[in-house]
Amino acid sequence: MASPDWDLISSYAGLLCLASISIYAGAHGSLPAPKRPKGKGTDKSVVQDDEDDEDDMSDRLSSGDAWLFPVAGSVALFGMYALMKYFGKEWINWLLMWYFSIAGVGSVWKSAASVTRFAVGEVRWKKFDRNRVLILKGPRALFPLALIPSVLFNTSETSRKSALITDILGLSFSYNAICLLKIDSFKTGCILLCGLFFYDIYWVFGTDVMVTVATSLDVPIKLLWPKSLRFASERGYTLLGLGDIVIPGTFVALALRYDHARGDGKGYFYATLAAYISGLVTTMTVMHVFGKAQPALLYLSPACIVALFGVGIVRGDLREAWKWIDDGQSVHVNSKKRIQ
């Protein structure tokens, strides 16, 4: 019997940890900001009101939008594949490198601000001077730090970009996407997961499009982990697309917002997060056994949906969860009604 390949197993474990941490942090980042009473005669009330209303202003993905996701994703994916096939991947990588480098500055800045806010606490955070660029905000002192990953990524002259820099940018993109891309109900979430379930199966098993695009583009749209306990790169890397983190992550984040609205523990959140982890472990196990790339959503989508229905049936509130709408305004109202 062959001994376990601990280098490869450690690579799977590393990706699993990165994906789980990203979803956990993004889900909590999607929670509505607590409403603060307006201070008397203070000029900070405008900033505070703006922050409180930020969650209300963000759009929710409806069931009508969810149906279009597989279609739009298919058009974009095949379009990228066709461009690479007939015009080469070099100029596409160059164009996308600049795009993600610029977008990465704002993404890393916002992520760094969130990490700092968590580390120092709300009281100290409120003392920091904030700067706002569109929807991105954070202390000015963090902006130079946010430039570093994008600069290193853009100026790298090696044949392949650094996996560490790619992961830093990729994690910041996935975190912010889960925070900002909010679905309005579990019905919408199930439609989204089911649609992308078939999308992933077709483009991975039915064609070589997905694998070709994922392995040819050297841009931070994936997470990488070296197949080595010593983090050596000789054997290459295992990879996980950001879509396999963000799409299930929005569902897990919705479960956390529903638990927050109920004010009764985090049962749905922990169940769906555990389902995601088990689904990803299953994906990696099947990929390892058969030695072939797997559509992760083939396992992740059913796992998250089954977790939702399982918890709802056990707790007897599946109908209430299915009818709940996260409109960004009634979250705290619903929780208050439940407590009363």
Overview of the molecule:
With 340 residues, this protein is mainly alpha-helical. It is 69% helix and 6% strand. The protein contains 14 helices and six strands. The protein has helices at residues 6-29, 45-57, 63-87, 90-120, 122-125, 143-155, 163-180, 186-206, 209-216, 243-262, 267-290, 297-315, 318-323, 331-339, and strands at residues 60-61, 130-133, 136-139, 182-183, 222-226, 237-241. A two-stranded parallel ribbon has the order 1-4. It has a two-stranded antiparallel ribbon with strand order 2-3. It has a two-stranded antiparallel sheet with strand order 5-6. Helix 1 (6-29) packs parallel to helix 7, helix 10 packs antiparallel against helix 11 (267-290) and helix 11 runs antiparallel to helix 12 (297-315). The longest helix is centred in the N-terminal third of the chain and has 31 residues, at 90-120. It is globular. The relative contact order is 0.15. Residues 40-53, 130-136 and 330-340 have low confidence and may be disordered.
What's the topology here?
Blueprint: H1 6-29, H2 45-57, E1 60-61, H3 63-87, H4 90-120, H5 122-125, E2 130-133, E3 136-139, H6 143-155, H7 163-180, E4 182-183, H8 186-206, H9 209-216, E5 222-226, E6 237-241, H10 243-262, H11 267-290, H12 297-315, H13 318-323, H14 331-339
Parallel strand pairs: 1-4
Antiparallel strand pairs: 2-3, 5-6
